[in-house]
Amino acid sequence: MPQLESDAPDDMIHEDGLPGHESQLDPKPEWQPRYPGSGRLAGKVALITGADSGIGRAVAALFAREGADVAILYLCEHDDARQTARIVSAEGRDALTIAGDIGDKAFCDAAVAQVIDRFGRLDILVNNAGEQHPDKDITDISEDQLRRTFQTNIFGMFFLTQAARPHLKSGAAIVNCTSVTMYQGEKELLDYSSTKGAITAFTRSLSENLVKEGIRVNAVAPGPIWTPLNPSGGASPEKLEHFGEGTPMGRPGQPNEVAPAFLFLACDDSSYMSGQVLHPNGGTIVNG
């Protein structure tokens, strides 16, 4: 059954009201897996950051359908996290919810320890959580915002990977979430896009570091996907009205259109891939 291990205090909600409630979005993002499971993650344990909503929820749902127990790390949206736990449980798998700030190394160490205490192993680490704060001019980016964005988006990946590393054995997989903004740039997301560039370099370098240990490291670079990150991250109503229309497909993607890329990289279907990036982005062609 779903279990809530801890609640993050309300004061952990920071600038722009992030990460935002999926339950309050209209229309609702589509997280539902599209196909029956085939046991590709049977017996595995996955830790997914930002799994309370958006892409993280869709990945948790799909991983559970494929046989994995799931640890759901999230900041403070307790209602969304409980819903994701119910989704995992409905697939017949065990869910563990852990609230806290991945930008805090002590929290990351404690969270991984909870996962090991509960499940006794860790096979898949999905570094998905992130935040963004649009600004029209570089001079509008405060020092606090710059530090916070890097703390969550890239420091958190280092902290969690460091905590998880002693428990990852040969055959384990790490999947990081970068972004199309790393390849195209985004004029109003200077700090966010910079962290995504760091994540891509981190992915490639960590792959080189771990590949001889039998641990594969890859990444997914989504395009515009309908999740709480965008309306809660300060996007204007005008920008949201046309969100995703600039892709060749002319629409935003849904979380359940991205989750299969994470599944592919987490399971043995991608056994000959490491240091690579997949691009579910609506047809935008990038070099990467």
Automatic annotation (TrEMBL):
<dbReference type="InterPro" id="IPR020904">
    <property type="entry name" value="Sc_DH/Rdtase_CS"/>
</dbReference>
<keyword id="KW-0560">Oxidoreductase</keyword>
<comment type="similarity">
    <text>Belongs to the short-chain dehydrogenases/reductases (SDR) family.</text>
</comment>
<feature type="compositionally biased region" description="Basic and acidic residues">
    <location>
        <begin position="11"/>
        <end position="31"/>
    </location>
</feature>
<protein>
    <submittedName>
        <fullName>SDR family oxidoreductase</fullName>
    </submittedName>
</protein>
<feature type="region of interest" description="Disordered">
    <location>
        <begin position="1"/>
        <end position="33"/>
    </location>
</feature>
<dbReference type="InterPro" id="IPR002347">
    <property type="entry name" value="SDR_fam"/>
</dbReference>
<dbReference type="Pfam" id="PF13561">
    <property type="entry name" value="adh_short_C2"/>
</dbReference>
<dbReference type="InterPro" id="IPR036291">
    <property type="entry name" value="NAD(P)-bd_dom_sf"/>
</dbReference>
